[in-house]
């Protein structure tokens, strides 16, 4: 993307915006006010976590259990902990607890309230659990959860904690709302300080913040209207929109404002400066936006609502940042003109010459000296940096992936604390059995069905890692033969008991498998695969339950991952090839991005899986990395960190077009972009790094991964690896097939 002074498409666009600058400003003011009303309501509209593998065996099995066996679609646990250490297992205490729930039991949507005794260990008798089932759908339960929680008081000397999926999802939703505000309180003031120091004036410093906030507000407003028509948007979406919108919007505006101030010094009037800013920086942010969109679009390849929601939100907010930068920001620059340099933050007499060097585009000579120093010893530097980055990548080889549960929240949330208490008192394997919904050709009490289920049960018992198998036959007394069992099952009272226990209904039956492994990890997943491989001729089986549900999520991710990676790498290369008309430059950019990306993900593994610096960063190390995390980091970070590569290579290409000197072009490109890219990187690190100190563990990890990747990209990659590789490749950097050069000469490119 060679920047020239030719009056191309983007120059004409900038001239158009300048001509109608006041109208453009007015339209955006109306959009901001209108969308702002709906933006604040958007997080409350999103009630799905986005993890459900819709259409999978586990999902279809769960729906069949609800439809055929009348298993409640929603349940939650109330964990009671004695304040004085007194046992809660005595009848008086149990009666006291039940009495406290009388108001809850009277509500129309509560199906049952009962103590959970199965799977209990003798670890603590000062803790007990009550399970509540409801005849509500999941989104309805979350919507009513606040009022439901008010009906669960603390009995005297006892503390109640509500946990379970409904409570966790509600807490995640509430955390998402608070996290957006918290991250902005942390990130925006620091970003403003950096912008004021970079530009030195109030007006120039505030403009990028306006672009970032407007991009986020407008996108959340659009999401509100989308959410009216669908309930499949993930409640993680607002956090991603806020993180990406502020980071990308501020960065893009930073480059635009910086270029405008340069152009004011060389163009004949403000209109020409706006047009040339659009011609140069406007096209740069357009291509950078495309690079970011590639990764975000690739996320939608994975058939989970979480990824498709994040892809939608990311595409909207990045596109909005590019649109706002190339419309409203250009209009504001045209309206301000020379006044953008007024209202200095630091009085002129206190500023050194170096602080004003970037205003005329000459750049900071420090970065030029760094480039020349690196290019004197390119081979040792490349070898050293590649070794360091590969060492950072190494932890990925031992990465353990898992599916998030209550541990995605910090212990201060009652759903997380209650879950931790349950883990102390109950056997996880008993709480989370693998469930088989079985359909026979004849009703459950017929002899053929009894024989088929008995045979299935014996087969299941022989599978490795199976500890116990329970079915409706387990509830029968020891009867001598199949005929006797069939006669017993025809008893109306027994049939009703089995139906009330949600074990049978006509030809549908529930078989539970208690394993001697947990509900997560490869051993659990292998067990589910082995159970699914069992296919009796006379029975139809769907394997569901926690382990099966998690396996289906992991397989959705891993099966699509190769296509995601291939799409991102291939399309990014093509876009950069079109932008720079070079074979080598895009290849190097992709290679360096993969290195920094892998290194950042390796550091995330060290923190979240192995616990390094976990206390400092206030994260919970659970021994796993959330399965969604590598994909999200790869898709989001790949495009974001490509930004700086595009801006740097644009300037290097511009200099090479002018001088034909590879080494000088590299030094001049780094000299002219070094300060502004470093500032932009620092702002992005601050904005996304603020999410490290929020409550959602998934967003913490994304914030950490993105911050580390940008830090590596702005230091080791851009300062050292780029100049070293540019030197080693020499004129080969600019080689392209003759047809590509011919096409380039016909295009009007910047």
Automatic annotation (TrEMBL):
- Residue ranges annotated as transmembrane are 20-40, 186-216, 236-255, 285-306, 312-333, 379-397, 560-580, 592-612, 624-642, 674-693, 699-721
Give the matching Pfam families. MMPL (PF03176)
Q: Which residues form the SSD domain?
A: 202-335
Q: What keywords tag this UniProt record?
A: Cell membrane, Membrane, Transmembrane, Transmembrane helix
Its GO CC terms are:
plasma membrane
| First-listed, main subcellular location of the protein, grouped into a coarse class | membrane
Q: Which PANTHER family match?
A: MEMBRANE PROTEIN MJ1562-RELATED, MEMBRANE PROTEIN YDFJ
UniProt-recorded name of the protein: MMPL family transporter
Organism whose genome encodes this protein = Paenibacillus agilis
